[in-house]
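User: Please fill in residues for this 150-position structure.
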C-alpha cells in the first residue's frame, strides 16, 4: 500500500501548528490518501498539536484515506489517552509497521484497524467529552455536594 511518510520533530505547539498544517493538508489532496507521521522526535505537544492531528485525521477520513502515527513519543502518547478524537488514530511502534498497517506492530488501534476485525463503521463516531460542565454552577465543597441553604 502506498503511503506518504513525513517525520515531525521538535515542538508541536500553538506557534508551530500554523506552519505544519498546510504541509500536512497538502499531502491529503489525492483520492484515498494514506499519511504516516513519524512522531518519535516530537518533544512537546500541547492542545493545539493534538487538535492538529485530529483535524488531519478527519480530513483524511473524509477523503477515504487515513492518518497513522509511527513511533509516538511520550509527548504524543500522553495526548492519545485524553484528547477527544485522538483515540480514532491508529499508532504503530515503527514506521514500517505504520506503512504496512501491520497489526503486530499496533500500539493504539484506530477505528479502521478494529473495523478490519469486526463489523463496525470505518469512521469514528462523534463522542461527548469525558468531562462535564456543571450547568448550575454549583461546585462541590469539602462537606460534599452543594445543597440548598436553610
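Assistant: Residues filled in for all 150 positions:
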Amino acid at each position: 500500500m502506498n503511503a506518504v511518510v513525513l517525520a515531525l520533530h521538535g515542538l508541536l505547539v500553538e506557534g508551530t501548528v500554523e506552519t505544519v498544517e498546510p504541509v500536512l493538508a497538502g499531502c491529503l489532496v489525492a483520492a484515498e490518501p494514506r499519511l504516516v507521521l513519524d512522531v518519535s522526535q516530537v518533544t512537546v505537544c500541547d492542545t493545539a498539536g493534538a487538535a492538529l492531528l485530529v483535524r488531519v485525521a478527519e480530513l483524511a477520513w473524509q477523503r477515504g484515506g487515513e492518518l497513522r502515527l509511527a513511533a509516538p513519543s511520550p509527548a504524543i502518547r500522553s495526548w492519545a489517552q485524553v484528547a477527544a478524537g485522538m483515540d480514532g488514530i491508529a499508532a504503530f511502534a515503527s514506521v514500517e509497521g505504520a506503512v504496512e498497517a501491520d497489526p503486530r506492530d499496533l500500539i493504539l488501534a484506530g477505528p479502521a484497524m478494529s473495523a478490519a476485525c469486526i463489523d463496525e463503521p470505518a469512521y469514528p463516531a462523534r463522542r461527548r467529552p469525558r468531562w462535564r460542565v456543571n450547568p448550575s454552577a454549583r461546585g462541590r465543597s469539602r462537606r460534599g455536594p452543594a445543597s440548598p441553604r436553610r
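For context: Residues 47-62 form the longest helix (16 residues).
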